[in-house]
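Extended Data, panel c. Modelled sequence:
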Amino acid sequence: MPRNRTAWCYSFLVTLLIKLSIISSFSHKLPTPPPLPILPLPSYSQLKWQQREIIMFLHFGVNTFTDREWGTGHENPAVFNPSGLNTKQWAKVAAEAGISLMILTAKHHDGFCLWPSKYTDHSVINSPWKSGNGDVVQEFVDAATLQGIDVGIYLSPWDRHEPRYGHDVAYNEYYLAQLQELLNKYKNVREIWFDGAKDPKSQNVSYYFSDWFSMVKELQSSINIFSDAGPDVRWVGDETGSADYTCWSTINRTSLSIGAPNISQYLSTGDPRGTDWLPAECDVSIRPGWFWHKSESPKRLSELLDIYYNSVGRNCVLLLNVPPNTTGLVSDDDAHRLKEFRKAINTIFNKNLAEDFYIKVSSQRSAEFGPEKLLDKDHLWSYWAPSADDGEKDHWIEIWTNDGGLRFNVIRVQEAIGLGQRIQRHEIYVDGKLMIQGTTVGYKRLHRLDVDVVHARLVRIKITKARGLPLISSIGLHFDPYWHSKFTAN
């Protein structure tokens, strides 16, 4: 064969292979990309915080021994003497309750420090506990870490002991010094708590919050900072453990200031037009008081479940305070109630009854965003998305069976908040009857129906108003045997 003919054949074959490769690549259907996010969006650490659902506060200090809620600042450090302090017991109780983050009052309003601060003598240094050589914060961090639990710290801005309080520059220097001391000594802190609580009759002092927040992020950048105004987590506005029926994770930080009056309602509801992602944390104590008092008992299980539905079930994280007693242990009554609480939550939510039935949707964006995504275990990045041009006024999801086999009294809906919070209004119908007229959903919305149990063939969840396409990461039907039952816990 002539040389030029061989070259031509070779060139032809190469060209043919290239064309076949191009045709093959076009014939392979590429996945449909996700819809555009709707700003603002949560940070990585905010998403991790949201998934915790329940975290623990531990109020412990001189008030534990003086039977007070707010100390005077004039307590003798000698009153602090927990004879059986065992932070490993605290962490074990927390682990058995499914807690992944514990926050300790390193310093409350009385100014007494649970670590040996070099900036004050009003601390464990001058207490008889361990002859002044103890460090509660270090033992707390070590015990939590051993159980795989993250730690947080509360350092009260209001200090009734420190003589520099009332002198802006001097006190802010003192506070920042203690903040640096804590965050340099105790690593991997995941949440730090700031508030504006103080007696209106106390001395005025300007807290340099911007300086404090900048220092926190410089020392440990992964920390979530809690305060009335964030910047990472906001207060819900009260201490009952309940958010508003409408609760947005978005809000305008410029409308907030720490300790300001008349912002409670705004904190509780958030703002659909908010420019900042600032989810709410609901704080409440397992007892009437924040510190341990011999005369008090823990809340009933039914009360704790109400709080759970009104906090975690309304797009928030529940911060439940469990105060150690004068011995230095979480009381048996409190530990028992926490175990009951966790067992009840597991009983209600470990089984998703919707998994046993058929799911139908109004439309879907593509095969990658089908109804099967509503029932998998990924509640953040796996989700159902309707088509943007399906012609439907409302988007909906149906759970159905041919018989009356749906037996439930709780309905769960979750949004894919990694792409923004979207749902403004939704309705839920059971066998054609309107049962729920809801507003926001967010990370998790729980609707507990006002009946002992529902027997039904069809549940329809309809999204009637949203900021863009609604993206639903998970739905569930659950049965709560504690709701409206004869069960009572003492």
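The longest strand covers residues 458-466. This feature is highlighted in the accompanying rendering.
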